[in-house]
């Protein structure tokens, strides 16, 4: 009996340790296996990112094994990988803008991958303006913006309106897709123009836009989209390690409908409890200090200042794991204090002799309690690794599994 008890105890320790140690390791990124030279004269190594054999764009598999495609993709991946500050800034901004853009693309039947076209168009800078006069996240020229329903004048320029400009971009994409029947050709036409892409497809007898011989900017454009998608979907693989608090959070706004002119936006901002700078930042489509309203307009008013401590603590600066842990706490509280099993488990820990006299198998209950505590400790190790390990485990967080052993040691809970 004692031998069996020792075996069970050992098995319990192994189980507890595995739960705490293995989960973070399995969910972390893999170790870098390539060995770099130790003779480098600089304190860091610069390596070439691996070009995938194929990528997808709206479900279409694009073969990159052909030498010219591979080298063009390689160039763009190196550019994104080693433009450290720019790429890091793009990933941070994406956390703010993608949640706004994605549902609009989906509602209009546009592939989600087109958000990466927006990335390379404007660097996710909502007030970007090119020397040629293209403006906003989607870099519409004034005439093109008006063609697709945007108001563009000295007082209001909706090319800077995130939602409306995205809807206009969707109209363009759908029009181009009706012409080409291929989303990659649509993306090429957005940069080079439909007339040029159509004529070059005919002249060069090419079946795919990626095989066209175009000017350098136009040729790079499609591969930049694919490279942006690859980097954004696998930032850790390419050396970009960000915690959640590093990302720019979506800014909560309240919508205010205005049907009359506003003579002074400075006074209006003050009446709303914000600064003029905040008003302009939330509504970059306003191009003057007044609003000569001809039709109804909707202004975004920053309400993050209204959230207070509660909003900052439980909305802006919180991990999903926080809510999961709260849910687990509620479930365990009910389990331990409101169920027959929980009452028996507590009785076996507080007064095992009395529980045994009532016919309760103390050994089994304590074994169950040890297993549950180990599982919870493993969860603690996982959450700790997830939220503090720079978003990349690299196998160095196995020590968090000792949280499980700590529960047993300091709790003095033994299945004996």
Question: Descriptors for this entry?
Answer:
4 strands; two-stranded antiparallel ribbon; 56% helix; 416 residues; extended; mainly alpha
Structural commentary:
- With 416 residues, the protein is mainly alpha-helical.
- It is built from 17 helices and four strands.
- It has helices spanning 2-27, 67-82, 84-107, 115-122, 142-147, 162-180, 183-192, 194-203, 216-233, 265-271, 276-282, 308-316, 320-338, 340-350, 352-357, 362-388, 402-411; strands at 54-57, 60-63, 253-258, 297-302.
- The chain has a two-stranded antiparallel sheet.
- A hairpin with a 2-residue loop joins strand 1 (54-57) and strand 2 (60-63).
- Helix 1 (2-27) packs antiparallel against helix 17 (402-411), helix 7 (183-192) packs across helix 8 and helix 13 (320-338) crosses helix 14 (340-350).
- The protein is extended.
- Residues 24-38 and 390-400 have low confidence and may be disordered.
Secondary structure layout plus pairing:
Layout: H1 2-27, E1 54-57, E2 60-63, H2 67-82, H3 84-107, H4 115-122, H5 142-147, H6 162-180, H7 183-192, H8 194-203, H9 216-233, E3 253-258, H10 265-271, H11 276-282, E4 297-302, H12 308-316, H13 320-338, H14 340-350, H15 352-357, H16 362-388, H17 402-411
Antiparallel strand pairs: 1-2, 3-4
